[in-house]
Structures are given as C-alpha cells and as structure tokens.
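Technical appendix A lists one of the benchmark inputs used to test multi-chain prediction within the project. The record comprises two sequence entries:
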Amino acid sequence: MDSELIARLRRDLPEGRVLTDPAVTAGYAHDEAEWAPHGSPAAVVRPRTAEEVQHVVRACLDHGVPVVTRGAGTGLSGGANAMDGAVVLSTEAMNAIKDIDPLERLAVVEPGVVNDDLRTACAGHGLWYPPDPASAPWSTIGGNVATNAGGLCCVKYGVTRDYVLGLQFVTGTGELVRVGRRTAKGVAGYDLTGLLVGSEGTLGVITEVTLRLRPRRAPEHTVAGHFASVLDAGRAVTAVAAAGVTPSALELIDRYCLEAVDAWKQMGLSTEADVVLLGRTDAPGRAGDEEAETMRRCFEEAGATWAARSTDPQEADALFEARRLAYPALERLGPVLTEDVCVPKSAVPEMLGRIHAIAERHGTLIANIAHAGDGNLHPLLITPPGDEPARVRAQAAFHDIIAEALALGGTVTGEHGVGLLKRDGLRAEVGPEVMALNRAVKDALDPRGLLNPGKVLGPRAPLGTRY
Amino acid sequence: MDSELIARLRRDLPEGRVLTDPAVTAGYAHDEAEWAPHGSPAAVVRPRTAEEVQHVVRACLDHGVPVVTRGAGTGLSGGANAMDGAVVLSTEAMNAIKDIDPLERLAVVEPGVVNDDLRTACAGHGLWYPPDPASAPWSTIGGNVATNAGGLCCVKYGVTRDYVLGLQFVTGTGELVRVGRRTAKGVAGYDLTGLLVGSEGTLGVITEVTLRLRPRRAPEHTVAGHFASVLDAGRAVTAVAAAGVTPSALELIDRYCLEAVDAWKQMGLSTEADVVLLGRTDAPGRAGDEEAETMRRCFEEAGATWAARSTDPQEADALFEARRLAYPALERLGPVLTEDVCVPKSAVPEMLGRIHAIAERHGTLIANIAHAGDGNLHPLLITPPGDEPARVRAQAAFHDIIAEALALGGTVTGEHGVGLLKRDGLRAEVGPEVMALNRAVKDALDPRGLLNPGKVLGPRAPLGTRY
C-alpha cells in the first residue's frame, strides 16, 4: 500500500472521499464477472467533482499507482476488477443530472447517474434515452459509456455510442478536457468521443457525458411465440429480418431460463413452452399493427407451437419481466458465467445449434437468453457451487463458444466488453496488426499505462501483482 | 520529383495505373475548396485493388513521399489538396459494389463507388443508404467516409459514421488491416472504425467499406414556407424542434440563392419569397400527415407569408431541386467560399442574424443555404472574379462567422471537415490539450507522418514545400 499517496488523497480531498477499510474496499474490488481474477485495492476514492477526479488521477500518476474506474460494478467481463495496490475510483457519488434540454434533445449528466433514473427524468420531458442494458436499474451512465452498453432496444435504436455527443474526461496525463459537442453534427478533429466510448476506463476517466435523446416513441405492440426448440426460434428470428421488419425488441428465452424463473416466481412459463420468443414493434399507428402481424406470421411459419399478439399491456410487460428475471433466477442455481457473442442475424439458428452441441460435449448446463434480433447471444454457463471439475468444463465450453462465433463471422463481445475475460478472444478476433493499432492508441492516450492497466489489451499480467 | 519512386510504381503496378503528365495530374491537385492552397503532385496513381493501394503506400513510405488520397475531389475544405512532390492516390477506379445483403442489411463496397450509384443499387433490394451529401451524384463512398459526410437526411438519420460498420484500410506503416464487423453490435477493442471515419486520409487509406443499410422508408410529405426574412425562417426551425417533430429534411434557402437559381433556370422562385424553408417528414401513415401539418402550423406561427403542404410530388421535387441548384447557380456569379458551421438548433435565428451583420460589416455578399433542422449552416461567400480586395474582405468575414459560431456554442465544421481551411478554427474550438490528444492519435497511427500531412492538425507548413 502506498501510504504517501493515501495521505495525500486524504489531505487534499474533502472528508469522507477516501475509503481504506478492507471490509469496505473489498466490495469495490470486482464487478460481476464470474471467475475473473482480482486483487485488493489500496483505497477506494469517491470523488464528487471533475476537479476531484483530476486530483485523484494526478496523485496516482505522481505515485505510479494504477487507477481503476468503476460505476455500479455491474459489468460482466472483469473490466472494473482491481489489481493489488490500485486506487479504485468510484463515480457513484457523481450522480447529478445537470441538464435536460427538450429543444436540443440532449442531456448532460455526471457519470454516476443510474440509467433508469435518467430514463425517468427524460420521460418527464417527453423524451427518451434508448440504451437499456438489463442492468439499467443499477448501472450508471458512466459505466454504460465506458463499456458501450447495449440492451433490448439496440436492434432498432443502436448502442450507447450512438447517443454520446460529447464527454468531459481526465486524460492519462492528468488533463481535464472536453471532446465532442452539443450540436447535432460536427467533424472538427478525430472522433475522440467515440474512441473513449467502450474504452473500459483504459483511455481516460469520464467526468461528464452529453447525451443525445429521442422524442417519446409510440406505444409498443408485443408478439409472443412458443417454440419446441431454439433452432425453430432462431429460424423465426431470421424470418423476421428477411420480412423487412425492424422490431424494437426481439428476445429469446430458452427452457432452462423459463424453468429457473418458474422455480423462483411461479409464473407457469415452462409448462407452456420450451423456448419463448418475444417481439416488439413501436412503429406508429397502422404500421405498428402491420409489423406486429408480420412478426406473428413469421413466428408461425418458422414452426411456433403458439404465437399471438398480446392485447393486454400487463401481460406483455410480465413476459418481458420474465426475460429480465432470467439471469438472477439462474444465479440461484450456482455461479453463472455469461457469454456475449454476436453473430450475423442469418447465423443465429446455426450458432444456437453449435452452443447446444458444446453444452453436450462438455457436460455443461448452458441456458440461453439472447437479443436475438441483432444476433447478440448470451449463453449462460451454470455450474454447481464449489464443483471445480464442472467449472473447468464450463471454461472450456466458454472458449469453444467464442471460437464458433468467430467461425461464423461473429464477434467475441457484442455489448459486455473485453475486460479480462475476452482478452484472448479479442486477439483471436482482430489479429496482431489490429492489436498493434489498439496498443498504439492506448500508448498515445495513456502514455504512463496507469489507467486500468491490463484490461482489454493485456498483457495478461497476473492480477494481484503490481503494475 | 522522386524519379526512383515513379519508376518503382510503374514497374510494380499494372499498365496505366501511374499518371505523370502535368496536364493530367493538375486535375487531381486540389478539391473544390475555394482559395485553399495546393501544390503539384509528382504522380497520380489509380490503383484497382487493396493490394495495389498497399503497394503504393509502402513505396511512398520507403521513399519518404507523402500520400494524398482522394475520391472524386468534391471536398470543400482542401482536405484532398496535393503538396508539391506528393503522390495523389485516387480511388476512383475501385468502384465495385461487392455485396448487398438484404437480410443483414449491409453493403460492402470499394471506396470509389459513387454515393448515388450505391443508393440506386440499394433501392433495387428495397434498402436505403441514408447519407446524402449534396455531392451525392459525384462524390464517392470513400470520400464520404473520410470526411464523415452529412447531407439533407442527417436531421433524422445521422451522418456517414452512423452507417460504417467496418473498414479495410492500409495503415501508416503499410499494413493492410480490417477493423469493425459485419454484425449488428460489437465492442471488441477500441472503435478504430469510428476513428478512421472523418480522419480525412490522415490515419489510413481506406480500401473497402462495410455499410449498414436501412429498409426503404415511407414516401415523404413536403411542406414549403415563404418568409420575409431569414430570422423568421430561423424562428420556424426552432418552433419545429420545440413541437417535437423530427423532420426527415428541413432546408433553408435565402433570396440570394433563389435569385441565382432564377437567373439560371427561370424557376420564378425569387418573385414569391425572400426565404424558402422546405420541410419533409417520412413518418409512416397518419403520423406523417400529422407531422406535416404540425410543421406547416409552425411555419405560419413563426410568420411565414405563405405555407402549404405540397400535394404534388413533382412540385415538391422541384423545390428540392432548387435547393440542390443553389450552389452551382451562385458559382456562376464568382468564386464561392463555402462555410459549414453548426450551431445548436435554438441558436439558428441568432446565428443567421450575426451572419447578416458580418456581411454588412465586410461588404461581402453572403448567401445562405442551410440544413437548418440540425443547425448546420452553409453561408456562401461570393466575390466577383479577380477582385482581390473583395477576396480579402470575404476571408475576414469567413473568420468572423467561425468566431460567432463558436461564441454560440457551435462547431467550425458540421460536415465538410477541417482540411486546410478550418485548421485555425479547429484549434480555436478544441484548445491546446485536445489538439495534443489529436496529435497523439495521428502520431500513433501514422508514425512517419506521410498520410496527407499537414491536413486537419497542421502545422500550417506552407503547401508547395516538401514534407
């Protein structure tokens, strides 16, 4: 532990910002990525202003200590995991919504604002912030920006990067800068804003975000389908794309998830279907009716055992609630390792089949939830608590899923980020020349290598050692 | 002239790729930016494959000769202007549309494909590539990507960067690499794709582009308004934004443009209006009707002398044709220096007022066309041919417009890029720390500094000198 650094931070920051009690800091040592390694941070700092963030970064630069930035810690790839001796910079106390401007359709927020809180505030102005990761009730905009978070809406409305107009951040040399703009368009210089989005705390520490908003949309129509197999459901996804429909959500939930939700919440889903596909459209007026009907027909033609438009909004919401409950429901069964591959839409049925074969080959329980409409699959690998051989088999299955996604022209991570868990996958996906370009960018913006070192690009230095 | 380099290029590339006749190469020495300096290139090379591009870049690196990449040369900021002794790499012969995939909704194209040709090809599959710069009949996708081109549709559909999924390019060290993806989502590593978009040939030479497409949209409704002043028209723009409408186009044409079009094409526009505002909406069905009616009401309430929905598609197209003809019509009067500032939507009336004051102050004729709906104004500074004092006054007005846009929270370039003309403006907009970050990125990806040197970031080394 760098006691001089701690003393400096305590001296220069207001009371209560610096936490060093190991019982407290342990709660900030890692995100929700199962089995990703982590160490013990020297301190957790919870700044309240951009200037305090700058002070923390400068102090860490002076002392050669790594800075690991985190929002709510809901990440699933280990991107926010601390290494021994690091300073964890938590943005949770920077949670002010500074501005919501209905005319310019933008919001200016501090990084610690919770996604759902922003969405609620926007709704009060007739506005909508689309990105809706499943973690939206807890995850922060800063974390969403750092990981370029996705969600259910992406199939129609894109990802977090599509909504970030500008950023204020502290650079790897300790400068507090603004990039981007408040205008609708702008091409003045390189797109540093977009570069920071998804950089997982390795290129800068975000202190303020200017977000593009959309007007409130039309009410959604919901279509539900029951299928006898994930392959049939996958074919329905491809059929929807081929029909030219752009759903506002298209989610797949397999029977392991349905059973786990039923075991917890007694919703009676698994007695009715092996696989559920949930489609939504928010096209206004008659176009919405037509798209919903087209989706229903696509479901039936792909072999749905049952498909219907939900006329009851509460029923529709309950179905999507089951989708949201799938992950915590599965966690009740044991540790869940979450995959995040994304494949071309046409490859969804094939990829689901290969995941099934991988589960059989390794004797691993793999449940599936998927943002099926954009090919972003979340196979969930579940192991009994404490079963080490099962864990080893699950790890092997995890790597096989990555390999199969790449073989089908996909990517190793659709929306969770590289963090620690996908570093090998990234190298396999992009190859040495593009890794060198990534490294060149990292070295250019973080020349001291103290911003979340080891994440995304590696080298895979053992965590628990000091960088 | 580097005769060894020329000899090597001639020897290693197929017949006809290398042009050195000064009468021919002069046509490749500059883009359409009025008054931007340029030199005489040593050679123009027109490769036909990515491997030939790589060969050109590697040869230039070996000989320390700058590479200036260009598409159709329709740029308006000098970004494609050659320096003495440079090799101009024209992508015009790489014009294959390699793939249009309706199911994945993407296209893969070579950089020399003309924008309108791609749009036509997409339409044949029921698909749409939205970015529509005014240069669309001539400009190439490679140039559009390199400048992050905008257009009329941006107010609803965003800019070129929003449609680039992946790129193949030759790096500053001569590697041929692929970045990005073919999947709907992906967060594997830094967003190098987005970084290359808008980098104006200074970070790499693009050899292939993978583009996101949209389904064909609903037919547009057109609303036209006549106004007695640009201020009234500006107020109408703000009113449309405040009403929550998202037009698919919202264009302003002032009386100088109307008169110039009339003088050329006898359309009789300038006898009816001082300023024309053209709005469009492509919301489907009833929603489109409602949005069009809301726009018409906003026009009237802002003081339109006449406002009506166009029920005749031919009439509506004629109005937009007048918008497209404005620029060439003005060029008949003398050299036109095109501005490209973008301000917040709420600042459009104020900015138009300040432009008017600047015109008076400098005794310069400034016509205005504007993508008014997203605050992107194109003041057009016109000088009589050969009138040097008028040119000097116009230059001063150009700088004043930039200063006023910045004062109103705007940007110096909404969609044309920095090139040569906006380098001072860029520095004024972003400040020294962000300039240093831009420079760090440039040095990281182009360590030899031979890719379009001097553009965007400067230093403003005199063109005509060898780098």
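The longest helix of chain A spans residues 423-445. Residues 97-215 of chain A form a domain with the Uridine Diphospho-n-acetylenolpyruvylglucosamine Reductase; domain 3 fold (CATH 3.30.465.10). Comparable benchmark entries are summarised in Table A2.
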